[in-house]
Design brief:
Structural class: mainly alpha
Number of strands: 0
Shape: globular
Largest sheet: none
Number of helices: 23
Order of helices and strands: HHHHHHHHHHHHHHHHHHHHHHH
Distance between the termini: 77 Å
């Protein structure tokens, strides 16, 4: 009965604490129960307590050496901690025991993408497709992601367009390509087609300054998330609502959003999600002009951010960019440079936030210009302008980069 109760409570993050209690009661009586160990490990995995999750998965393997699921789960805990080499070894070794299963080369491809080994990842995808033609949709989508991460926007767009116009994967993929190029209006055209991707629409509206539309969208999504008991989604949306308040210069509302977010996170088990609170507080302090406080908050946000495990929205580029900007405003150009260079070394983190990757070159241009390193400033401004050669008109960074480049060329 404890397994049934634990599995029921594990359906919603709001009752994860009860799931933990049920599984622990089971393990008190049957400490070697592999199902109980695995499922309890999955709860800790979900709340990003990877050390505890790994410990439980290891115990599950000792109880059931023939199973592959716990080994797979351990590999994912390593991915969340950035130990991609260790994750790859587990998937490779386990895959040899199950040579007929295409899931292993597909997962190996994902690990290689996270390591930035894109060509090797493409090879693993082809292997997965050869083993199982049913992998075609996932393989095609991942191929598009890889070409996007490599900066080959045309090839990425071609891959995504192999899906029919009614297929959601096509619109999701194309929107990521357009965001990476600063083509936000085209991204919105994809996202606003039915069925509407409401969360992504609200996010893009926030980025381009349509704050009223963004706030309206986030508010509706939050209501639905509360109704559907989607705890993790509520955290992300509360964070974005707070950021929108900051952008609208409504600092009282932003501060209240931050306090509400902190209380909400502390009411659950996902304590590492405090990174969203720390980032929001950093933005508030930035707006107040207290860059030292902002830096402290941003560092805490960055330190709590997991490494990528799957292709989805990650906020690491946003957090690093905020930290870099705070260092820049505080006059610490060397540390600002370090943070923006970190963005350029990211892999899967930047999949859905490729605009931060492009804008890192803009900020490096400003940093080197301020340092008096003209040639490097010119190089970075030109790289940014090339990446965004088809971007929407009127974007501040574009206009400023052109202006600064012209001033450097006149010397």
């Amino acid at each position: 009965r404890f397994i049934i109760a634990g599995d029921y409570y594990r359906l919603s993050e709001e009752t994860f604490d009860k799931a933990v209690e049920a599984y622990e009661q089971l393990l008190e009586m049957y400490p070697d129960d592999s199902t109980g160990l695995t499922n309890l490990g999955l709860v800790y995995y979900e709340i990003e307590d990877f050390d505890r999750a790994e410990e439980l998965f290891q115990q599950s393997i000792q109880s059931n050496r023939e199973g592959w699921i716990a080994k797979w789960n351990i590999a994912e805990t390593y991915m969340g901690q950035g130990y991609y080499d260790k994750a790859g070894l587990i998937i490779e070794e386990t895959g040899r025991l199950y040579p007929e299963q295409s899931r292993f080369p597909a997962q190996m491809a994902l690990i290689l993408v996270c390591e930035g080994k894109y060509d090797q990842a493409l090879g693993q995808l082809e292997r997965a497709l050869t083993m199982d033609s049913g992998q075609r949709v996932g393989v095609t989508m991942m191929r598009g992601h890889i070409y996007l991460l490599k900066g080959d926007f045309d090839r990425a767009e071609k891959e995504y367009k192999t899906f029919g116009e009614s297929i959601s994967s096509r619109r999701i993929g194309l929107s990521t390509v357009y965001v990476a190029q600063g083509k936000y209006r085209e991204a919105l055209n994809q996202l606003e087609s039915k069925p509407v991707f409401s969360e992504a629409v609200a996010y893009v509206n926030m980025i381009i300054g349509n704050y009223t539309e963004a706030m309206s969208g986030f508010s509706e999504i939050l209501k639905k998330s509360i109704k559907d008991r989607r705890y993790g989604n509520q955290i992300a949306i509360r964070h974005l609502i707070g950021l929108t308040h900051v952008l609208m210069k409504d600092m009282d509302a932003a501060q209240q959003s931050a306090e509400d977010l902190r209380e909400f996170i502390e009411s659950g088990l996902r304590q590492k999600a405090k990174r969203f609170y720390y980032h929001l507080m950093g933005k508030i302090e930035m707006e107040k002009g207290d860059f030292s406080k902002a830096i402290d908050f941003f560092i805490q946000a960055v330190n709590l951010t997991p490494s990528p495990i799957e292709p989805r929205m990650y906020f690491h580029p946003m957090f690093l960019s905020s930290l870099g900007q705070a260092y820049f405003q505080n006059g610490d150009l060397n540390r600002a440079q370090e943070e923006y260079e970190k963005i350029q070394s990211l892999t899967l983190h930047k999949l859905q936030t490729g605009d931060y990757y492009a804008k890192s070159y803009y900020w490096l241009g400003k940093i080197f210009q301020k340092k008096g390193e003209r040639s490097r400033a010119v190089e970075d401004y030109e790289t940014f302008l090339d990446l965004w050669k088809d971007a929407d008109s009127g974007i501040f960074e574009l206009e400023d980069a052109r202006s600064q480049l012209a001033s450097l060329d006149s010397y």
